[in-house]
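We modelled the chain as a single entity of 106 amino acids. Its sequence is:
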Amino acid sequence: MSAHTKTRRTKRVSAPKTKTKPKRKPQEKSIHWREVFKEELEKYGEAGLMLRGSRYKAELTQKELAEALDISQNHISEMENGKRSIGKVMALRFAKFFKTDYRKFL
């Protein structure tokens, strides 16, 4: 047999309500990515940076990407460094490989 114990109800205490909203930090002005990478864009070009960034995101070396697309590693290097244009056909191959829009590489 269990003994029944009487429970005592307590009054809930809530935090005092305030009508003022908490102060927000002033938002910093955002900077466009092209402004941040201005020097790199001048040196390598936008298409080369996109290729390098996509390859880096996929954690691939130039050699691994070249083997996957059946082109030379030297061509990948030249495209990333802005010495060789990518072209529409190659942009389509990169887009299919990285599952993205081909216009990113043009």
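As a brief sanity check on the tokenised model: The CA atoms of residues 23 and 40 lie 39 Å apart. The chain has a mean pLDDT of 85.
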